[in-house]
Amino acid sequence: YQRRVHGEITVPRMDSRLELSRQVFGRSDPPPSILRRLWWVVAGLTLFPLRALLVSIIVLHAWLWMRIFLLCSGVSVAKIWHSAGDTYVKHLTPCARRFFVWFTWINFRIILFVSGFWTTSENVCGCKGARKCSCTFSGRAPTIVSNHVSTFDIPVLHGMFACSFVSKASVKSVPVAGFLTWTVGSAFVDRGHGDRTATAAAAPPAGSDAASTGSSVTAILSERAALLSPSPTKNAVDSSIPPFLVFPEGTTTNGSQMISFHTGPFVCGLPVQPIFISYPHGGFNPAYDSIPFIEHIFKIWCSPITRCHVLRLPVYEPSPEERASPALYARNVQQLLSSVSGCAVVDLAYADKVAFLDSRKAKKE
């Protein structure tokens, strides 16, 4: 499946880049009514603590069983934590990988149910004006690329595709969460060092001083993609290795527009699975943009139902020109997502979000 969109990204006319950042990263919720404020109080005393307790039990239960499974498998956790590269593939057997992905998939689905998520999905091909087309949705790409809106993007998409994902390097030192993130084969990215990671797919225990190995994110994505792609040298692809879920924007937005894609997932020149995720809402917007994390989780767990809609496009096969130019490949995939979803693309990056949040903080002070 191929689609060529060679036009440049259009940036709406704005008086300042900061104003554009406010539209992309600022809150889009309507002012809460008195009834909604009253609901936050009631739900905060009833629904929130119940959901927080249930999710905590689920997470601790998953952590306990995964630790037991590793011990019974004879895998040296300390060796994995201090190894470089894609340790998930190097040190775990196919049986262990299947168990971890399957067990995480079940737990994520339960967490979404407990959190009140109502997820719908739709297959769209983007072939305008064609009653019938040759697009198929049965293929499996080594890399899944999606826009990024909420902290719940990961459990939603893992529940659909049983995939690994790229996480912030700071997550690896979080008790329980760091280990669980590794169990699905994730890579940990240090934003402060560009395209470098701490030990990919290896989460050191909380409180440890494990040094970063500086493995390249692009190199690890390419290595995983190569393992999941058929070639003349191997008869079959190892189905126990999950594909990588990557958010090329590098940060979250409020869902109204997409910011420019990074080229990391597109450097290897292999097919990708484009996904667009959105959260239709009439009141609280579940986007994790400029809202504090605690407030973000609190309001999601206080909401009776949180709707989520996923658009799944056919696997995108790059052209020779796109394989030679990752920037062109990234731009074309993003423009395809924009044309299908109706979500505009603006020329902003993570640095613009940081500048916007700093300006808000300065105004408050």
Give the SSE map.
Layout: H1 17-25, H2 34-45, H3 47-73, H4 77-81, H5 87-91, H6 94-114, E1 117-123, E2 143-146, H7 153-161, E3 164-168, H8 177-182, E4 187-190, E5 196-197, H9 217-227, E6 244-246, E7 257-259, E8 272-278, H10 293-302, E9 306-312, H11 320-324, H12 326-341, E10 344-346, H13 350-364
Parallel strand pairs: 1-9, 2-6, 2-8, 3-4, 3-6, 7-10
Antiparallel strand pairs: 4-5, 8-9
Helix pairs in contact: 1-13, 2-10, 3-6, 3-10, 6-7
Structural class: alpha/beta
Compute the number of helices: 13
The percent range for helix content is 40-55%
The unreliable regions are: 1-8, 10-14, 192-215
Q: Strand portion, in percent?
A: 5-15%
Strand line-up across the major sheet: 1-9-8-2-6-3-4-5
State the shape: globular
Mean pLDDT across the residues is 79
Radius of gyration: 21 Å
Strands, count: 10
In N-to-C order, the SSE pattern is HHHHHHEEHEHEEHEEEHEHHEH
**What does the largest sheet look like?**
8 strands, mixed
C-alpha end-to-end distance: 52 Å
Report on this structure.
- This protein has 365 residues and is an alpha/beta fold.
- It contains 13 helices and 10 strands.
- It has helices spanning 17-25, 34-45, 47-73, 77-81, 87-91, 94-114, 153-161, 177-182, 217-227, 293-302, 320-324, 326-341, 350-364; strands at residues 117-123, 143-146, 164-168, 187-190, 196-197, 244-246, 257-259, 272-278, 306-312, 344-346.
- The strands form 2 sheets. An 8-stranded mixed beta sheet has the order 1-9-8-2-6-3-4-5, sandwiched between helices.
- Helix 8 (177-182) links the parallel strand 3 (164-168) and strand 4 (187-190).
- The chain is globular, with a radius of gyration of 21 Å.
